[in-house]
């Protein structure tokens, strides 16, 4: 069950990125990431930029010359975690005055100069679109100048920067296809911290996938705040597409076309994508999922609330009924598709009846997984400016608990539905509990563990019959195809 940071392995929060030794590396970088998958992916770009400057990553804080925290602002709790961590790092800095500490990511973007004024131990503040400037900023700080760059960009996609990958399992990787978000959901800080939505050149996406395939990767997740909104027309913000030339419009590549290109070019690679936004999910994408066996049958489709009136206050661009229509369409075109959601309990003005609508929506869909949160007011967002955060804390907590319990019931039902069936599983690593077992996922993103069989290795696709399940894991055994 995922009740915490979404898409995020809770175990990975604060993980330090470790890359292979580079020649000419003279300085040590400790780079820690918090928050969503996009941040973990961005850290790989940062490591790549700094590798070129002679920085080698380390997992030992004590030996670092430079410490960077890639931060998250999505909920207040995420920011508190980073503040606490900065407090701890302060102690190290006292012993090693030449050590430099920087904050990257959403919290850097949100707090800007305040970081230097309030948290005196921070030397460098860099927003998500300014990582190319890091080498200059590091020089500035060495020369005793303030080093802040929180400029957001309409074009930056880090398209040609080849991220370093060695933190993972060598089998699954993330490839960023869009940055920023234009949706302006009233509760959300992302449009302010990550700027306008823009798409990455499909050629550079295909190149990155090719490099991954050649390095032995077997699964790629295309990443964006709103992947279905992907639209390449030569660069620039999505919102300016209307001003594009006729030729640009005629040759534009949308998400369904991108999926088709990647899936066709790399038939041996499993493809996933995240995150889908209900308002932008087109039938074309579903048709590609039905057409290509290597596109996984799983959609993360956040809804946030089951009530049309709450959805309107959240500035989500669809009603409850329209969401049901989309669900019906998915079930029709991709019948075996798994679905997961993000849900917010206790948004501004949420009544008991509106909360009940959320529960009944969940009953309708019966999601495989859910990422569920209590509403956390974020400074500067439209909700913070215009709507009181007026649901009593105890009501928020109880409603969240009801949502979580219902999701647990549905997850258990879904998992039980997979028992007795044979699943194609990509072996991703050892089972955490027992290294005599492999760990992997099926196309629906359900986790399977099963005893190792001689001759199998990480990166193999194998057939596994699920014999039983716990709430989150299927337990099985390998079988012949
Ligand atoms: N489109 C993005 C959403 C990022 S935010 C994506 O890539 O998935 C992830 C989730 O955090 C949101 O879907 C929402 O459920 C939750 N969230 C965002 N702002 C929140 C807030 N102020 N309080 C509680 N949860 C929030
Ligand atoms: Fe946030 Fe809504 Fe975009 S949740 S990231 S503004 S789709």
From TrEMBL:
InterPro entries: Elp3/MiaA/NifB-like_rSAM (IPR006638), Methylthiotransferase (IPR005839), Methylthiotransferase_CS (IPR020612), Methylthiotransferase_N (IPR013848), Methylthiotransferase_N_sf (IPR038135), MiaB_methiolase (IPR006463), rSAM (IPR007197), rSAM_horseshoe (IPR023404)
Keywords: 4Fe-4S, Cytoplasm, Iron, Iron-sulfur, Metal-binding, S-adenosyl-L-methionine, Transferase, tRNA processing
Cofactor note: Binds 2 [4Fe-4S] clusters. One cluster is coordinated with 3 cysteines and an exchangeable S-adenosyl-L-methionine.
GO molecular function: 4 iron, 4 sulfur cluster binding; metal ion binding; tRNA-2-methylthio-N(6)-dimethylallyladenosine(37) synthase activity
Cell compartment(s), UniProt: Cytoplasm
One Pfam family it belongs to: TRAM
UniProt binding sites for [4Fe-4S] cluster 1: 36, 72, 106
UniProt-annotated binding residues for [4Fe-4S] cluster 2: 181, 185, 188
Residue ranges of every copy of the Radical SAM core domain listed in the record: 167-413
Cofactor annotation: [4Fe-4S] cluster
MTTase N-terminal domain mapped to chain residues: 27-143
Domain of life of the native organism: Bacteria
Ranges for domain TRAM: 416-480
Principal subcellular localization: cytoplasm
GO terms for cellular component: cytosol
EC number: 2.8.4.3
Reaction catalysed by this enzyme: N(6)-dimethylallyladenosine(37) in tRNA + (sulfur carrier)-SH + AH2 + 2 S-adenosyl-L-methionine = 2-methylsulfanyl-N(6)-dimethylallyladenosine(37) in tRNA + (sulfur carrier)-H + 5'-deoxyadenosine + L-methionine + A + S-adenosyl-L-homocysteine + 2 H(+)
Job of this protein: Catalyzes the methylthiolation of N6-(dimethylallyl)adenosine (i(6)A), leading to the formation of 2-methylthio-N6-(dimethylallyl)adenosine (ms(2)i(6)A) at position 37 in tRNAs that read codons beginning with uridine.
Record-linked NCBIfam families: miaB-methiolase (TIGR01574), MiaB/RimO family radical SAM methylthiotransferase (TIGR00089)
Family note: Belongs to the methylthiotransferase family. MiaB subfamily.
Name of the protein: tRNA-2-methylthio-N(6)-dimethylallyladenosine synthase
């Amino acid at each position: 069950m995922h009740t915490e940071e979404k898409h995020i392995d809770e175990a990975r929060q604060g993980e330090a990125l470790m890359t292979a030794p580079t020649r000419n590396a003279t300085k040590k970088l400790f780079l820690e990431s918090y928050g969503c998958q996009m941040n973990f992916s961005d850290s790989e770009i940062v490591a790549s930029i700094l590798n070129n400057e002679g920085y080698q990553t380390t997992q030992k804080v004590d030996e670092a010359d430079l410490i960077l925290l890639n931060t998250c602002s999505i909920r207040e709790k995420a920011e508190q975690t980073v503040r606490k961590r900065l407090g701890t790092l302060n102690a190290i800095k006292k012993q090693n005055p030449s050590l430099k500490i920087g904050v990257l990511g959403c919290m850097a973007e949100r707090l800007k100069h305040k970081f230097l004024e309030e948290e005196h131990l921070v030397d460098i503040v860099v927003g998500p679109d300014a990582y190319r400037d890091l080498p200059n900023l590091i020089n500035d700080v060495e020369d005793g100048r303030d080093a802040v760059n929180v400029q957001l960009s309409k074009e930056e996609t880090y398209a040609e920067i080849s991220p370093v990958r060695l933190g993972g399992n060598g089998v699954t990787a993330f490839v960023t296809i869009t940055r920023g978000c234009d949706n302006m959901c009233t509760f959300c800080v992302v449009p302010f911290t990550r700027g306008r939505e823009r798409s990455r050149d499909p050629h550079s996406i295909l190149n990155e996938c090719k490099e991954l395939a050649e390095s032995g990767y077997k699964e790629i997740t295309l990443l964006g705040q709103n992947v279905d909104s992907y639209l390449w027309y030569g660069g620039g913000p999505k919102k300016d597409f209307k001003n594009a030339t006729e030729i640009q419009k005629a040759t534009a590549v949308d998400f369904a076309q991108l999926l088709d290109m990647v899936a066709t070019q790399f038939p041996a690679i499993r493809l996933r994508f995240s995150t889908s936004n209900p308002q932008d999910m087109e039938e074309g994408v579903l048709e590609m999922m039905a057409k290509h066996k290597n596109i996984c049958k799983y959609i993360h489709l956040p809804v946030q609330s089951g009530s049309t009136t709450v959805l309107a206050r959240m500035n989500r661009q669809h009603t409850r009924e329209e969401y049901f229509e989309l669900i019906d369409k998915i079930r029709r075109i991709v019948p075996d598709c798994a679905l997961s959601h993000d849900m917010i309990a206790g948004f501004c003005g949420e009544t008991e009846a509106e909360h009940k609508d959320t529960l009944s929506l969940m009953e309708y869909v019966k999601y495989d997984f859910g990422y569920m949160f209590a509403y956390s007011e974020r400074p500067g967002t439209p909700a913070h400016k215009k709507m009181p955060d007026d649901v009593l804390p105890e009501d928020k907590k109880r409603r969240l608990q009801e949502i979580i319990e219902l999701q647990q019931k549905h997850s258990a039902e879904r998992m039980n539905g997979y028992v007795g069936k044979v699943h194609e599983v990509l072996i991703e690593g050892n089972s955490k509990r027992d290294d005599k077992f492999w760990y992997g996922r099926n196309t629906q993103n359900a986790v399977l563990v099963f005893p190792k069989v001689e001759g199998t290795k990480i990166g193999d696709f194998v057939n596994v019959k699920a014999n039983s399940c716990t709430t989150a894991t299927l337990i099985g055994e390998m079988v012949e195809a």
